[in-house]
Structure formats: C-alpha cells, structure tokens
Amino acid sequence: MPADARPNILFILVDQLGARWLPSHGNPIVSAPALENFAAGSAVFDRAISTSPICTPYRGCLLSGMYPSQTGVRQNGQAFPAGLPSVADHLNAAGYATQYIGKWHLSGAPQSNRWVPPGRRAGFQRFIGWESHHVDHWDGRLWEDDPETSIVMPGHETDALTEIALEQLVALAASPKPFFMLVSYQAPHPPCSPPAEFEALYAGQDLLPEPNADRDAWYRMPQWNADYAVERFRQRYFGEISQMDAAFGRLLQALDQLSLSDNALVVFTSDHGEMAGAHGRFGKGSMFEESLHVPLMIRAPGQEGGLRVGCPAATLDLLPTLLDYAGCPPPSKTEGISLRPVVESSAGAPERVVFSEFHDFCATDGRWKLLTRGRSLELAALYDIADDPYELDNRIHDDSCAVIQAKLGAALEQWHERVGLPAESERA
Q: Could you give the CA distance from residue 14 to residue 268 in angstroms, rounded to a whole number?
C-alpha cells in the first residue's frame, strides 16, 4: 500500500468512562454533544467490553493484543514486558511516526507522577507524558526525555493535555509520514474536579434515575481528600465527562482545519468504566456493566453516516484493527479480530463470545453475560443484558437458561485452557 494512501490514526483513550454515562449510549442526563455528533458519523459498538477493567492490565491488552494472563500484566503498577511487541513496534516497522501523549501507567513501580524512561515506553518514538496518579487534575506535570525537567500543565489537565495534542498534530501534519498518535487522558478518573462551568451543568438535577443506583452510597477516599455523597460524586464525574467532550471536539476540529479528516482513522474509547454508585459501588475492577462496558467509536477514512454494531467487541480487537488499516501484516500472536470489515459494513457482525479477566472471569456473547466466582471456573452469575440491563436478576439457577449457560460455560472453559491460566485460577 503506498504511504500516502495509509490513514493517519488518532486514538483517544480516556480513563474510567463507562458507556453507561454517555448520551450516545442512552444516558438521558450527561451532555456530550461532540461525542454525539461523532457517533452519528462513526461505527458505534454497543457491546464493547474491557478485556480487563482496570488501568494497567487494560493498557497491556491494548498495546499487545493479548490477555493479561498471557502478558503477565495483571495488576496495576506492573510494567509492560520488555521485548513484547507492541502496536507502536508494528507501526514503526511499517513507517509510521508513533507518538504517545498523556497518562502511561505501564512502566512499573512506583506508581506516581514521574518520568517514564525511554526503555519503558513500548516502542513509541515520541513520548510526552507521565507514569500515573495525577490525583489533583489541577496540578499535573509531565515529561519528555529529560527526567530532571518536568512540564507543568496550567489549569485543568484535560485542557492542558489537549493544547499539547493540538500542537503535536500541527507538527505531524507537516510530516510526509503517516502518524499514529495516542492521546491518553486521565479524566474523568475520580476524584473529579471539573471547571465550575461544567460542574454547574448538573446542579439541581436528579442524577440517579437508574433502578440499580444506591441513593445512600457514599464516596470515601481519604487519601484523595474525597468524602461526599453519591449525588455530589456524579455531579463532579459528569462535569468531567462534559469537559472531556469539549476537548475531544477541539481535536476533531483541528483535524478538519489541518485537512486531515478525510484520511484519518479516529478511535474513541476508554480503559474501563466507573460504578458511580450503581449497586452501591464506586470504582472499577468488577464485571458489572458500569465497570466492564466501555464506549468504542471508530470513524474510518471517508466514512459517510453512522453505524450501530451489536456484536461484542473487546480491547484485544483494537491492535489487529489498527494494523489492518495501516496495511501491516497481522502479528503471529494476537487474540482479537480486525473490526475493519464491520466498520466498513462490508461484512455482517460476527457471532462470537468475548472474555474479560481480573478478579473474576467473564464470557459474553453480547446479550448474555456469564461470570465466575473469583479466578476459578465456579459459575456465579448469568445476566440477560438485553432484558435486564441493570443486572438486577441473576439467572444462574434458572432452568430456562440452561442452554445459554452451558454454551457460555463451555466457551469459558475452552478459553481458560487455551490461554493457559496460572495455577491459582484452576477450578475450585
């Protein structure tokens, strides 16, 4: 494929944004007009799940196309394995300029706001970012290649990071090489502190309309100076989503102004969701929809009109999809599939079962979701997401569901054996 025919790739990764909280996925409260407009002209995957709904393991899956049990990156704070080919390595070999901007969370201990050494950057040619843990979104710092010189991000880091990304887009647009730029925002990861105008959007509203919302839930994170009721949590969280939406809109506008839009592949997704008081919980790491189900929107070069995709998709599909669009041969080891045929409507959505792992295992065909008890094959829950989207009715002991339970259970056992999980995850 000629170099000038290959698309530029802009990949936007946000932190802790569940699909549940976006208007493009049915939320009646949150304001996100840029994402709504983007969804109208993109392939929107209505059943995208995080292959591991926690920060570092997700990032290992995204870069490698492999499961946490295959990479060994199974907990926050672990490093991406040296020598394991990443999406940047593949694109570097294909002649792309690769750049990473923002939160990394893949260089190992300590988990802190610090410099990331070049050998821990998984092959990205240009890197402007930090390891992890910007607790205060108004006091962010990042680094390039000098460990002794940090860059202070003025104002809220979502806006400051966007300014950096816009500057880099201008430079990349002037290069003859196609580019892959991954912008990794920490927002709307709690504790949220949006600018006042975005927080004010949600003042005086009932922010807990879902039947699984616990109105008595309380968010307590003393180490982050966070101690407030679920209504206050949601007001702040939703405010940061709206701020993020505005930032995303600025990036899309820049693509237009730089005449890049016609030959750009744009991906918007998140590493995992946020419970936000659903089932009385906060945070991520669980297999409930609020934590597991993530937004995934892909706009292909020259795409006209939007497409809603009902088949399940997972984090592991992103590496083969990006390489497919870049004209790269698929890697010898990858667990996902290219979503390009679905995005371009040249093929029907495949019937498949996709998997997720963290403290528990999950298998889903898009409608039904089967969960285990811990990292074993002991079955704990079965939900019909189509009829029970808020997961209020566990059907694991319902005889009428025996066929689908057996199907997903068999798929989970086959996956468990194929992936080669460690001894701790053997059947209890």
A: 8
Q: How crowded is the C-beta side of 288, counted as CA atoms within 13 Å?
A: 23
Q: Tell how strand 361-364 and strand 354-357 pair up.
A: antiparallel
Please state, in angstroms and rounded to a whole number, the distance separating the CA atoms of residues 271 and 53. Answer: 7
How many Cβ atoms sit within 10 Å of the Cβ of residue 347?
A: 10
Q: Tokens standing for 327? A: 């004209």
Q: What is the pLDDT along the chain (428 residues), one digit of tens a residue?
A: 344 589 999 999 999 999 999 999 999 999 999 999 999 999 999 999 999 999 999 999 999 999 999 999 999 999 999 999 999 999 999 999 999 999 999 999 999 999 999 999 999 999 999 999 888 899 899 999 999 999 999 999 999 999 999 999 999 999 999 999 999 999 999 999 999 999 999 999 999 999 999 999 999 999 888 999 999 999 999 999 999 999 999 999 999 999 999 999 999 999 999 999 999 999 999 999 999 999 999 999 988 889 999 999 999 999 999 999 999 988 888 899 999 999 997 677 789 999 999 999 999 999 999 999 999 999 999 999 999 999 999 999 999 999 999 999 999 999 999 997 754 443 33
DSSP H stretches of helix in 309-361? 318-326, 340-343
Q: Count Cβ atoms below 10 Å from residue 262 Cβ, excluding itself.
A: 11
Contact (CB, 8 A) for 81 and 56: no
Q: Is the dihedral of CA 139, 134, 130, 326 positive or negative?
A: negative
15, amino acid identity: D
Query: E-assigned strands of 144-263?
Result: 150-152, 179-184, 218-221, 226-229
Contacts of residue 163, Cβ cutoff 8 Å, sequence gap at least 6: none
Which pTM value belongs to this model? 0.96
241: tokens are 């989503």
Question: Which structure tokens are listed for 69?
Answer: 């049990």
Using DSSP, state whether 108 is helix, strand or coil.
coil
Check if the beta carbon of residue 276 is closer than 8 Å to that of residue 283: no
